[in-house]
Write a structure and sequence with these properties.
Helix content is 9%, strand content 52%. The chain is mainly beta and 308 residues long. It folds into 3 domains: 35-131, Sandwich (Immunoglobulin-like), CATH 2.60.40.4070; 138-232, Immunoglobulin-like; 236-306, Immunoglobulin-like (Sandwich). The strands form 7 sheets. Strands 2, 4, 5, 7, 8 and 9 form a 6-stranded mixed β-sheet that branches. It has a 5-stranded mixed β-sheet with strand order 11-19-18-13-14, with no helix packed on it. A hairpin with a 2-residue loop joins β16 and β17 (201-202). The longest helix is centred in the first third of the chain and has 28 residues, at 2-29. The protein is rod-shaped.
Amino acid sequence: MARVLAILLVLGLLGGTAAAFVITEGLKLEKSPVTRTHLVNQLFSPTCDCSKDVASIGFQLRRVDTVTATVVTPQGEAVATLAVHYFRRSVEVSWNGRDEQGSVVPDGTYKLRLHLAHHHQTITLPNAIRVETTAPSIAVKAIAPRVFSPDHDGRAEYVKIAFSVSAPARALLYVNRTLVGRGQIKRAGGTIHWYGKAHGKPYRPGVYRLSLRAEDQAGNVSAPTRAVSVRLRYIALARNVIRVRSGARFAIRVSSDAEVVRWLLHGKTGESAPGTLRLRAPRKPGQYRLFVTSVGRAQVALVVVSKR
């Protein structure tokens, strides 16, 4: 009799194990009630005052349900409830990086926990949401040249700014405090160029102050660097008015990075290297215009000729 009971006990255990295995395998094959999860601004900053100050989470339900969506810490502690609502299929919720009291949460990783009332099931989505509110820092290492001319002659076409960043970030280039350029995300530093333009429009010759800011992937922006002055110059004359005796020789300084400049004065023309241009005044007293050109750009000086 005892032997029969032992056999029945063994058979019962085997049957129970088999049944548990079947149930477990069935659960493995059961499809998740949530599918097609996607995040916008998975890394974001609730304090950046930019397009990345909110994270959006979307997903699809296989069946209609009442969903409670809660942001939780890695330890499972509730931070903020985003929705308690009856959804048909598509679900879209947003989180501004704040807790139930409206305070910005500490930097770190968070997840979205879903409770499905109809399914009597709670699911924590695997997609991590990261809050980052600390702005990177940026330092200018070098700026050269300080005088440039974007005239397509292959010499001093742009200003090159070398920089370093404290964390992965892009450089933002400002000219006279106006944003004119955005670089690529760099891990430790790099370079950014200014070609004397903003949004395709060229700047006029003159002195401009360049500065940088750093923007990280979460949208945090650093304080600006100290501004550095550069000169955009195509061709420049040292004087606007030249006073000279009739027939006398005179000189004027011409600044340009071109190899050759061309001049025109009272019907006479010539070429010279940039630097000191030496010419002879017309013999007839009067006022004349001296034109000096370089790579399609021109400067004009007034030559006032008096009697000997």
